[in-house]
Amino acid sequence: MAHKEKVNRVVLIGAGFVGSSYAFALINQAVTEELVIIDVNKEKAIGDVMDLNHGKAFAPSSTKTWHGDFSDCKEADIVCICAGANQKPGETRLDLVEKNMKIFKTIVEQVMECGFEGIFLIATNPVDILTQAVQAFSGMPQERVIGSGTTLDTARFRYLLSDYFDVSTHNVHAYIIGEHGDTELPVWSNARIGGVPISAYLNKEKAFRAEDLEHVFEKVRDAAYHIIEKKGATYYGIAMSLVRITKAILGNENSILTVSAYLDGEYGANGVYAGVPAVINRLGTREILEIELSEKEQKQFDHSVQTLKATITPALEKMNQNKM
Question: What would the pLDDT profile of 169-189 be if each residue is shown by its tens digit?
Answer without folding.
Answer: 999 999 999 999 999 999 999
